Amino acid sequence: MSENDMLWMSAVVFIPAVFALLLIFVPRGKEDIMRWLSLAGTGLTLGVSIGAFILFYSNVIDFNRGNDPEARQRMSLEFRQLEYDGGGVSAPTNSGDWISNYPWIDRFNIKYYLGADGISMPLVLLTTLLSFLAMIASWKIDKFVRGYCMLFLLLETGMLGTFLALDFFLFYIFWELMLLPMYFLIGVWGGPRREYAAIKFFLYTLLGSVFILIALLAFYFTDVRDFAGPRTKAEAVAAAKSEGRTVAENQVEIHSFDLVVLQRIGKAALQKLNDQPVTTSFAAIQAKENLDKLKRDKKATAEDVHNAEAKYQAALDDSGLKKRLEQAFFQPWFQYTMFLFLLVGFAIKVPVFPFHTWLPDAHVEAPTPISMILAGVLLKMGGYGIIRIAYPICPWAGQQLAYIVALFGVINIVYGAFAAMAQSDFKKLVAYSSVSHMGYVLLGIAVWSSPEHAQYWSWGMNGAMFQMIAHGITSAGMFFLVGVIYDRAHHRRLDNFRGLYEPMPLYGGISAIIFFAAMGLPGMCGFVGEFMVVLSTWNYNRLFAVLAALTVVITAAYILWTIQRVFMGENPQYKNYSDVSVREIVCILPLLILSVALGVLPGYLLLNWMEPSVTGLVDTLARFTP
Amino acid sequence: MLPNIDLGQLWIECLRFLPELLACGGIVLFLFMRFFDRSHMGVIALLVTLLALSVSLAQWTGRIDWLGNKPIEVLEAPRITNSTPDEPFQGTFRPTFGGLLVYDHLTIFLRCFLYGFTALVIWLTMTTGIPDREDSPDFYCLLLGATVGMVLMASSTHLLMVYIGIEMASLPSYALAGYLKGRRASSEAALKYVVYGGGSAGIMLYGISLLAGRFGTAYLPDVAVGLVHSFAPTSGGVTFDPVLILAVLFVLIGVAFKLAVVPFHFWCPDVFEGASAEVAGYLSIASKGAAMALLARLVLLLCGVDPLVQPTFSAHWSVMVHYLLPALAFFAALTATFGNLAAYLQTNLKRLLAYSTIAHAGYMLMGLAAIRPVAQPGEPFELPGLQAVLFYLVAYLFMNLGAFAVTAYLRNQTGSEELSDFRGLVRRSPWMVVTLSVFLLSLLGLPPLVGFTAKFQVFSVLWDSSQAWYRKGDTGMGATLFGLLIVGGINSVFSAVYYLKVLKVMILEGRAEDLEGREPVPLREPIEAVVFSTICALAVFVLGILWSPLDRFTREGTDRFAWRVGPTAADMMQAPQRGGGGGGGMRRPPPPGGGGGGMRGPEGGKQQPPRGGGGGNRGGGAKGPGGPKGQQP
Predict the structure, then answer these.
(1) Is residue B69 part of a domain?
(2) Chain B closest CA to A102's CA: distance in Å?
(3) Considering CB atoms only, which of A177, A220, A243 is closest to B447?
(4) Residue range B362-375, pLDDT digits in tens
(5) How many CA atoms lie within 13 A of A435 on its CB side?
(6) B346: domain range?
(7) B157 and B308 in contact (C-beta within 8 Å)?
């Protein structure tokens, strides 16, 4: 474990789990020690993740030359994986590339494989921040504190692992790992209907996971030997040797859970199914690189260039490659089926319209900090899965079905907004607003039409990512604010609140800012993502864009109406309520600052370092569309 | 007969059979010990089992063969097919006792599994105190006797031996089920078990007699070849011999009864509910393992994967597989689905676990259903799922034994096995609840526990096999296996409902005193109970994360079947077929140079080429799951 980046990433993932173990040794009855210990755990994770982020930022992109193509390229996992895979086994690994693996299960070529790029890093930071804040928000929980803290920390490990894993199997393990803590956190510490809500959440997500598992198996059994570099090949040969059989390097079958390699064959499938030459095989990439270098090199003779061109052509026409492109993975039915499996699996988590019914139940019953995590992070895992796995690995089907995905996105937006308007329970309203806002994410991901419109798709994808972060901040904030008032009033019926502004002016002010940020007021974080998504949708489908834009009015309506119902007017009943406490301010302040700052400086704070990865992903896919 | 027996050969065969002999010696010892010593027999039983286990482990590493002081002869496979008789067989299997038993990696694997498991069960009984001092010799006699029977089941290659094995495993099980003499439920369980067991044994015996009468032999490879040939594809389709179909069904019913495959599962919940948790745990795992191995042997023979039958890829075997695979898939799906759905309604923890056992038998059957064609032409089928099934068995051992152990401990403390009495248990007996949760979640198949890795392997084999069929152009078979995969996945979701129900009762729900705000009375958690359940839970967890070593062991356990040895002979279609009608002859006349009967003296057999490790247990040609690797003799 000498690799620096591996250490940092592993630390981020496993510090919470280690603290969960430490909690066992706290003697019974010392609840405060348990709380402080868990807070230290989440705080340390936050600190380490920020440290990791700074290192990542300074290593992977150059601060001063943001437009350097090399630096932009280094943001893509593809580039770094190629570099990593390019040498043989003995070649040194680069400890600053933020992509690192260790063998785990040899027979299935499963690796303990972590990596970070501009897509995962913001989500990691969001997770560690929200976990820290949610732990502060958990201070008032006094039932089974030890169990609560342990499960909470385990949940954090699961979430962080999901965002950092680059091995599909490892991803799946982390994905499932957070299922159980969540079940208990809702089921034990939740509201009156907690058992129903918990089991509903569990079954929905488990059903989704089954689909993901099948897709995972299906991908694994594809022979990817043309798409793997010398290091992977050498490893496979060594593994075969340890099993007692000898295979030549060009004979060895390679099956992989490596998400980057799977993305590469996804691209190959896209090219093949669009009747284009497959240029993503490892040999072709190398030959192309060589050719480009020669072309730039003024000293190179025409003959050299010609030879390199011939080599490139040979790599494209390789008969073995052609034969292996007949595998199931490269067939339309396979791409359709697996894309749908993955989409359903992740859509349940997002949640997308017909699968969303677990969300209001879970949110209403979950305790406040768990609602924050649920809305702030867990929903993002669905979006992350679609961006990282479903679209890049099954891009062809993704493009064919983009219209349907976008349609569901719009349905989510509109349906969620109207449903939110109809709620009389404060938490349910926020939950449905989540459904509506996550619709923008889906819509932004889906607006893929043609190579000429790649620019718009890239806006959409960036908008989706931005919306995920922004929604993570605002929805967590909103759930926390609902929790604050619930602690005082012990109910959440919107119609029974009134005049809260008078006794709690600070609370009212904070609420207004967070709610307006969620609404998408320009200058606040909710606006940027929605704007980018709607803008890109306009070039994809005018009707969708109009619907998505018009829904902002509905959103404004239910949010303003809520503010009116809760804060305006007079209500003697609540006159004696105390304003927000210091602990509550500490908890909400970072969210408050971020929700404004991200709206004012979206570029500096997020887009500058997130965009290269997202755009890189979009570019490589959009280029091969007919 | 007697003059024909080569004493050296007998000596070697006895050495191969040593673990069973040791166990039998243990049984005799218990019976005699009653006269001298009245103390608890647990320690002695544990020692005997561990001795048998260590001999089995020594066999596994191949060392035991040196004790024979003679170079190990590889007996020729008694073959009735047409492959040239003078070609020595180069596998690592050895038919023992004249072809009644087979001594191969699968046998030794199951031996280690069964003795290891029995040792754990004996340890468990010593901590729960279910056989008291007075009863302990009888109890351990029965336990070891059943184990010997199960090893016989797992290693038999002769229908007679199959029957004897099943009976030897069943008879002590009946008595074990009724061991709680004072309890009505226990006696009822034993009676139900006896009636069902007796019925299915009778049916099975009838099937065996039909087969033996039809083919003139009960030697399984011969029977398999005969059966497969009777499924003759003609221009008008496939002709069936109804008697044979019936006979095969009858034999399979006997196995299905042991496995508790739906619709032969009715005894299972009642017996488990009535028997003590320790015995239920023993029956659920050991008899499942043995029956699964036996069924695997039958499937291997019928699909021509077992080298004993040496088939070539002829239409006959293909026809057989086309019936066998959907049948296995159907029963696997039925068993898993029914078990999971029925478990949901249970209110007794042991009954619930009984249905979960049924469901898991379904998952394991899925592994056996994953028969797939080999890519190379001229090769028959392979059964990659066998390895997954072995892995599943080991995984199942720890998680299910753990679950039953905790049930036993809870019964000792609360005096009940009803779910309703376990309300709010987490506050009264936290460690038991935590470990039981680990076991149940592993049974449900959540990573990173071993239950998930086991399911993952079964599912991966299903997908791979379904793709192999698609590649061969056989959409029907491919779709069947893919459908089975989907059914398996959906079943995981079904099973979540009832496993979580147990957790919900224990953790989420509260007792009356919780509602009244009183402090719940904590239950005693004996240190040995904590140790036992923690060890099982750790095994479940560690094997779920580091499963490479176990994976390697299971692969070695299937060495003989996963990879074909030797070149293929001419197609059997052209071969002179055995007279199917009267079944006059005993067996094909032995190749020249051999002794009479099935057993052959060492000088008649061919010398195995020198190989490392004496027995060459790890030899057996090139290995690898990727494709068929041949070794040319």
Answers:
(1) yes
(2) 13
(3) A177
(4) 999 999 999 888 76
(5) 30
(6) 23-562
(7) yes
